[in-house]
Amino acid sequence: MDSVTKRYPDGTVAVDRLSLDIPDRAITVFVGPSGCGKTTTLRMINRMIEPSEGTILIDGKDVLKEPVNTLRRSMGYVIQNAGLFQHRTIIDNIATVPRLLGWDKGRARDRARELMGRVGLDPSLAKRYPYQLSGGQQQRVGVARALAADPPVLLMDEPFSAVDPIVRKGLQDELLRIQEELGKTIVFVTHDIDEAVKIGTKVAVMRTGGRLAQFAPPAELLTDPADAFVEDFLGADRGIRRLSFFPAAGLPLLTTPVVAVDATAEQIAARTTPDVPYLLVTGLDGRPLGWGEPRNLTAGRIDPTRLLAHGRPFEHATDSLRAALDCAVLSPTGWAVAVGADGRVTGVVAQHTIAEAIRSAHAARPDTEKAVR
Ligand SMILES: Nc1ncnc2c1ncn2[C@@H]1O[C@H](COP(=O)(O)OP(=O)(O)OP(=O)(O)O)[C@@H](O)[C@H]1O
């Protein structure tokens, strides 16, 4: 987008000389307060709204010189509440664009079924009507419909705003998975900065008046907000959220203060060290049961119901420093429990060790463009 402006007939400047390069095969998120011009920007890309000034090039081609129909068919479009055709079944909703492109019914429906699988919809829902689906399921249908003709570009306008936080997280994870599999160029509008930081490869923060405040990868946004407006928009816990971009894998784990539920008196004694007041007890399957003071543990038959809760463990290899810190903060002992992918304990780490890792992380720049999820 090169110096793109949209002035509505009443004189409102919705977008003001916006210039930015939207990366290919990545997710670019537009975020900002209500009325800052996000939707107008998105709709200028597929010319549902015509720009007043400036140029928008896709792969070097000026969108204003493309026939509108060709342009729109090369872009999937997803909106809040999915915007499904209420009188059509789910499968026919998804098959809409392929049918418009002249595919025969069988082929279009086969494609629709394949996409239902891709977006995590059970095939048994194919013959239902939109009103017979939950909000989250309808939103998945909206994504499947937008993907049906395999467009290289996907435009998404607050697609997940109308669903509850848990469903929303599921939809976000699904979108990231689809993006990894299909490599679409996605432009995504939201007013939720957490959503932007989670799914964006790059995030464009806009301010009222349709001006671009900052355009950067999420980690950079959290590290170096361009000005007070961006800093304010990012919210109070910017430092904590930035920890999502640093892996927990570098944390040194202690394996000594860990005993199995059937530990002998000798084992308990051998694993008790002066610097760790508690022992983590695991089941015979290696999963964590809870913390206990060594003198309260009955050798040979530790009672799991008398242990202190261990809190939610973090996965050492894949989680972030933020997850490890959260775990330590919520742990009654101040120690976080690390597990492997199989849920078995790999060690424990003290809050102060995590604090040291955080200090060095803040001194370094985040080297990942994506949050460690
Ligand atoms: N057809 C129109 N005529 C005049 N002004 C308009 C028109 N459509 C939008 N606007 C104005 O343009 C500005 C940008 O609107 P836009 O819908 O792009 O914002 P937004 O950032 O997407 O907002 P929201 O988060 O509330 O959806 C707003 O001030 C809005 O009132």
TrEMBL record:
Looking up SMART domains in the UniProt record yields: AAA
Q: Name one Pfam family in it.
A: ABC_tran
- InterPro entries assigned to the protein according to its UniProt record, in alphabetical order: AAA+_ATPase (IPR003593), ABC_transporter-like_ATP-bd (IPR003439), ABC_transporter-like_CS (IPR017871), P-loop_NTPase (IPR027417)
User: Under which main EC class is this enzyme filed?
Assistant: translocase
Positions of the ABC transporter domain: 1-234
> Might you give the EC number(s) for this enzyme?
7.6.2.9
Give a GO molecular function annotation for the protein: ABC-type quaternary ammonium compound transporting activity
Keywords assigned by UniProt, alphabetized = ATP-binding, Nucleotide-binding, Transport
Record-stated family: Belongs to the ABC transporter superfamily.
Name of the protein in its database record: ABC-type quaternary amine transporter
Provide the species name: Streptomyces griseoviridis
